[in-house]
Design goal:
By secondary structure, this protein is of the alpha/beta class. The protein is about 30% helix and about 25% strand. It binds zinc ion (ZN). Zinc ion binds next to loops.
Length: about 500
C-alpha cells in the first residue's frame, strides 16, 4: 500500500496584530519531504502513525512537508499558498497512492482563506479522486466546516486538552483510513452543531467525565470514532463553535442520532463548562491563603490571557506588576517572550548584574515594560521544554531575578511559546517545586506537567490579549446564533 502523509498547521487569532508569515513556520517547525526526524511533534501524529503501521505491514510511506507555526495572527496568503502548493505538488508526484493522512490544526485562517483546511482537503480530494480515502487529525480547537467534512473520509480531533493524546489519535486515524482503503469499512460522518462558544479543558469537571463517557462509546456497535470540536474563540469565521463528530461504519442515521444526543448533553453542561476566572489580585490572595495552610508545593497560577498557544505575545506585564507592587516573595514567572532582553542577558553572562528593560513591548495589551536591576541566573542557547514526550523550542533563553523586588524570578525566551514543561524553569536554574507561587503563561496545557507538583492550580483571565469574555469579542462573521452571545441559540 502507498501512503501519503504531510502536516500543515497553525491556530489563527484573527484579532491578533502579529502577522504569521513563511518565516514563522520555518522557525517554529519545518521538515521537508522525508526530513522529519525521530522526535514526536504535536501535529505529526499521522506521519508518526503511518511510519509505525507501515513498518509492520510493509507499506510504502511517502512523507511530504511537515510544518507548523506557533499561533499568532492571520497567515499571509503567500505563506499559506506556498506550503499548500508544496504539499499538493508532492502528492501529485507521489500518485498513485492508496490513502492520504494529514496532520492539520483546523483553525488556520489566511488572507483570502477563512477555511484553509477545507481548501487544502478539497484540493487533495480533487487530486486523488473519490476512491482514495483521505483523513486528517485535527486539534479540537478547530473550526469544523462542511467543506472539511465533505472532502475527507475521516476527521479525528485530539480528545485531550492538554493535547497529550496526539499519538494515539494519529494511530486511530491511520487505522480507520487504512481499513477504508482495504474496503473493510465505509466511514460515514455525522456532525451535530452545539451552537455554543466554550473553553473546555479536559482535566477539569464536568468535561473530564464527558470525555470518558465518549471514549467508552467508541470501537463498538459500529461507532468508529467520536470527536469533540471545542472551537477556537478568537477566530472570527462563520463556523466557529462547539460540535460533535461521530464516525460510524456506514450507519449515518445512527451516527446522526448519537451526535445529537451527545451534543445536547454537552450543551446542557454549558454553564458548568464555562471557565471561572479569578482576577489577578483575587488569585494572589487565594494563593497566600493556601500557602498559609499545611501543604506541599507551589500554587500555580495560569495567566490565561497571555497564552502564546492561543496567539498571544506572551510578554504582558500585568501580573508581574501586581507581584512587584504587593512585594510577594518566592514567585517565578514564565515564559516571557523578549528576544532583545535575552540578548542582553547573554551579553551580561550568568551572574551578571545590570539594569534591564524587558517585556510589555508587543502592543497595548502587553502593558508597560518593566525596568529593574536584575541578576542573570542562567543562560541557555537553543533551550527547550518538554510536552507529552515532544520537544518544544524556547530559542536562546535566560532566567533573571529582580534584585529589588524580593527575587522575583522570570524566564525570558526568544522563540515564542507557552508554558508546557517543568523544564521551562528547571532547565534555566529555577526549581519550580521550590517556589511559593509559579505564574505560567498558558491556558491549560501546563496542567499536564505542573498540576502534579502544585499545591493548587488557579486560573485567571486577564487583563491581556486573550479575553475570556467572548461577549466582548467583536465577531463579524459568525453565521448562526451561538451561546453565550445569545441566551437561547436554538430558539429561532
Ligand atoms: Zn488546541
Amino acid at each position: 500500500m502507498r501512503v501519503f502523509t504531510a502536516s500543515l498547521a497553525t491556530e489563527t487569532d484573527t484579532f491578533s496584530p502579529m502577522v504569521t508569515g513563511e518565516a514563522d513556520f520555518r522557525t517554529s517547525f519545518y521538515a521537508g519531504p522525508g526530513a522529519f526526524g525521530d522526535e514526536p511533534r504535536l501535529f505529526a501524529g499521522p506521519l508518526i502513525a503511518a511510519r509505525k503501521r507501515g513498518r509492520a505491514a510493509n507499506w510504502e510511506v511517502i512523507e511530504g512537508t511537515c510544518t507548523f507555526a506557533q499561533p499568532a495572527g492571520t497567515v499571509t496568503r503567500a505563506a499559506y499558498e506556498l506550503f499548500r502548493d508544496e504539499i499538493l505538488d508532492q502528492l501529485r508526484s507521489a500518485m498513485p497512492v492508496d490513502m492520504v493522512v494529514l496532520g492539520l490544526h483546523g483553525a488556520m485562517v489566511a488572507d483570502g482563506y477563512d477555511d484553509c483546511e477545507g481548501d487544502l482537503l478539497a484540493r487533495v480530494r480533487a487530486i486523488v479522486g473519490r476512491d482514495v480515502p483521505v483523513g486528517a487529525e485535527l486539534d479540537p480547537h478547530c473550526h469544523l466546516t462542511e467543506t472539511m467534512t465533505k472532502s475527507a473520509d475521516a476527521l479525528i480531533c485530539f480528545k485531550e486538552s492538554p493535547h497529550t493524546d496526539y499519538l494515539e489519535r494519529g494511530e486511530e486515524l491511520v487505522d480507520i483510513i487504512a481499513d477504508c482503503a482495504r474496503k473493510k469499512i465505509k466511514p460515514a460522518t455525522s456532525v451535530y452543531d452545539c451552537r455554543m462558544i466554550q473553553f473546555m479543558p479536559t482535566v477539569d469537571e464536568p468535561m473530564r467525565s464527558f470525555v470518558d463517557r465518549v471514549k467508552a462509546l467508541e470501537g463498538k456497535d459500529g461507532v468508529l470514532s467520536i470527536s469533540i470540536v471545542h472551537g477556537y474563540t478568537l477566530g472570527d469565521v462563520a463556523d466557529l463553535g462547539v460540535k460533535i463528530v461521530v464516525i460510524t461504519d456506514d450507519a449515518k442515521e445512527k451516527g446522526d442520532r448519537l451526535a445529537e444526543r451527545l451534543g445536547r448533553e454537552l450543551y446542557a453542561l454549558k454553564d458548568a463548562l464555562f471557565p471561572e476566572s479569578a482576577r489577578m489580585d483575587d488569585a494572589l490572595d487565594e494563593a497566600e491563603r493556601l500557602l498559609a495552610e499545611p501543604g506541599k508545593g507551589p500554587v500555580v497560577i495560569a495567566d490565561r490571557a497571555d497564552n502564546a498557544g492561543g496567539g498571544a505575545p506572551s510578554d504582558s506585564t500585568y501580573f508581574m506588576d501586581r507581584v512587584i507592587e504587593r512585594g510577594i516573595e518566592g514567585v517565578a514567572v514564565g515564559p516571557v517572550w523578549d528576544p532583545i532582553a535575552v540578548r542582553q542577558c547573554l551579553a551580561a553572562g550568568e551572574g551578571g548584574v545590570f539594569a534591564l528593560r524587558f517585556a510589555g513591548k508587543m502592543g497595548p495589551t502587553s502593558g508597560r515594560p518593566i525596568d529593574a536591576r536584575v541578576r542573570v541566573i542562567r543562560c541557555v542557547r537553543g533551550a527547550t521544554q518538554t510536552f507529552a514526550g515532544a520537544r518544544d523550542e524556547l530559542g536562546d533563553a535566560a532566567s533573571i531575578e529582580l534584585l529589588d523586588h524580593k527575587g522575583l524570578a522570570v524566564v525570558l525566551i526568544s522563540t515564542r511559546t507557552q508554558a508546557l514543561g517543568l523544564d521551562l524553569f528547571s532547565g534555566l536554574g529555577i526549581d519550580p517545586a521550590g517556589k511559593r507561587i509559579v505564574i505560567v503563561k498558558s491556558f491549560t496545557h501546563f496542567n499536564a506537567a505542573f498540576r502534579p507538583i502544585a499545591r493548587a492550580v488557579l486560573y485567571t483571565g486577564g487583563p491581556g490579549p486573550l479575553t475570556l469574555n467572548v461577549r466582548d469579542v467583536p465577531y463579524t462573521k459568525i453565521a448562526r446564533p451561538l451561546w453565550p452571545l445569545v441566551a437561547d441559540p436554538f430558539a429561532a
